[in-house]
Amino acid sequence: MMTTKKVLLAVLTSLSGGLIMAGPAQAALSIGCTDMKSDSSVEILLGAGPVPNFLSVTIALGDRHLTTVPGQPGEQVSIAQAYDDGEVVRVDLVDPQAQNKIAAIRIIRANDKAGPFQIGYVQLEGDVAVGITCEGP
After folding, report:
1. How confident is the model over 49-76, as a mean pLDDT?
2. What is the pLDDT at residue 48?
3. What are the CA-CA distances from residue 9 to residues 3, 15, 23, 90, 103 (Å)?
């Protein structure tokens, strides 16, 4: 027969395990974008908090794949600067040595009678810009 102390300890252990598991899932938000043909994509992972925190960016554009996530397939890039004021998202990616700009992402957020929307472009250095529509926070 379990004592009250053991039952309480089991419940607290169970609850704390659930909180630890739930934490990371709630700690990040993402913006997902595609072009009109849906053959290119941009994924931006944002950390939750009082100020925008850009955790990672992945771009698939034509036969090029870029990522800020070490160990992921694709060309490794770094976030040079990232900005989100609630109306405009700006992300510039550079090579790992931060010597050359590799890509730019610009997203404009707006609200109209039909509801909120996000549009913008992704541009690899030396290529034409590709229009994108986005979903996410």
Report:
1. 92
2. 80
3. 10, 10, 21, 48, 52
Strand pairing of 75-76 and 28-34?
A: unpaired
Pairing mode of beta strands 28-34, 130-135: antiparallel
Q: How many Cα atoms sit within 13 Å of 16 on the Cβ side?
A: 6
Contact 92, 84 (CB under 8 A): no
Per-residue pLDDT tens over the stretch 83-127: 998 899 999 999 999 999 999 999 999 988 877 889 999 999 999
Q: Which domains does the chain have, with CATH numbers?
A: 28-135 (2.40.128)
How far from 123 is each of 1, 54, 58, 93, CA to CA, in Å?
67, 18, 13, 10
Confidence (pLDDT) at 122: 97
Closest to 67 in 3D by CA, of 101, 46, 96: 96
- Dihedral sign for Cα 28, 134, 107, 90, please: positive
CB 52 within 8 A of CB 72: no
Q: Which is nearest to 66 in space by CA: 46, 89, 96, 97? A: 96
